[in-house]
Amino acid sequence: MFTAAREEICLKKICIIAPVHQYNDVRVFQKEAKALSMNGFNVTIIAKSNKESKIDGIKIIPVQNYKNRLERILLQPLFLYKALSLKCDIYHIHNPETIFLGFILKIFGKKVIYDTHEDFSKRVLIKNWIPKPLRKPLASFIKLMEYLASYIFDMCIVTQKEILSRMGSKSIIIENAPIAKGDLINKAYEISETKPREAEVFRLIYVGGISKARGILEIIKSLELVNKYINVRLWLIGPSGRGSILEEASLLEGWKYVDYLGPLRQEEAFSYMIQANIGIVTILNVGDHSQTSPNKLYEYMTFKLPFIASDFNLWKEKIMQVKSGFFVNPKSINEISDKIIWLLTNQEESRQMGINGYNYVMRKYNWDIESKKLLEIYRRIS
């Protein structure tokens, strides 16, 4: 009986539609697509890519190149055509702008799973490119669409309790738990081995989006204070996006202690984490930041890095008991710099913090554990 069920699952074709994301996005490809593929599903991803390809058994179909957000919206019919032409059994769509595609897919009798990574109804309230008079109406519209999706689609996946509370019964939280082992981690260590080890300099690392809301200016200002006592440099990794703050940041005194590496492939970014001394993610309390899962902290913990993080109540509730880092007021340059200095001058305690975090990720909270929820959803609706 089990073999027959397994063979039936193996025949299921899955199409993941994520036109905003790069094909190798960590949640889309490294976590969800790989978990499904390794468990017998035939997976295709429609996402940003230079060419059609097949990687680790997963087919990649590139979306049509678009120059701006409006053009991306106008290309929705093409994304739909590509998706329907695959004749898949289940369509897994990502983020609010694909909801209309999902509604049409349901009209065609397809099974649809909606997956939202963030609370976009709050994110739009802090987007500078959206005219202020339109932000609140757009936020309400997103909430309405997601509410309808939670009743019309076969399942909805969210990452926050607050989003779950306004969705229907066919909704579940799947956390963005870190990848703790496997090819991605092995590649990161291989790349790290090729990098020269720096002497007489401590390394702080930040990986993620680069903007004022992410607290980047405060981090850079803290470097100026720290370097009065200890030689510290920052690896700054990630996209700066529209309205880049890099020009403003480069005018700060602390910028001379920054090595900006731009956006990197995940394994490359991880290789820098391996060599760093402290991981930092002191994002400001705007939008839905205080309700997000502290994903980056878990990644730092995976590589035994003690961290300095924003003192959001949710974050502290989740991992303060692990004793793997410090929580600070993200706007306080003095608090940030004080904790950097403490971690670098108390190295035995810092090392133990790193070990505490590593043990927590390996034993209690990682994608191998969290992915079981995803597989259960697919087995239930297949």
What is the compact description of this entry?
The protein has 382 residues and is of the alpha/beta class. The chain is 46% helix and 19% strand. Residues 28-163 form the Glycosyltransferase subfamily 4-like N-terminal domain.
Would you give the CATH topology of the largest domain? Rossmann fold
The coarse overall form would be globular
What would CATH call the architecture of the largest domain?
3-Layer(aba) Sandwich
Q: What is the CATH superfamily classification of the largest domain?
A: Glycogen Phosphorylase B
Radius of gyration: 21 Å
Total number of domains: 2
End-to-end distance: 16 Å
Helix content: 40-55%
CATH class of the largest domain: Alpha Beta
Which structural class best describes the helix and strand composition?
A: alpha/beta
Number of helices: 17
Low-confidence stretches: 1-9
Average of pLDDT: 92
Strand content: 15-25%
Written overview of the protein:
With 382 residues, this protein is α/β, with parallel strands linked by helices. The protein folds into 2 domains: 13-177 and 366-381, 3-Layer(aba) Sandwich (Rossmann fold), CATH 3.40.50.2000; 183-364, Glycogen Phosphorylase B (Rossmann fold), CATH 3.40.50. It is 46% helix and 19% strand. The strands form 2 sheets. It has an 8-stranded mixed β-sheet with strand order 3-4-2-1-5-6-7-8, with helices on both faces. The protein has a 6-stranded parallel β-sheet with strand order 11-10-9-12-13-14, sandwiched between helices. Helix 10 crosses helix 15 (333-345) and helix 13 (295-302) crosses helix 16 (347-363). The chain is globular and about 65 Å long. The protein starts with a helix and ends with a helix.
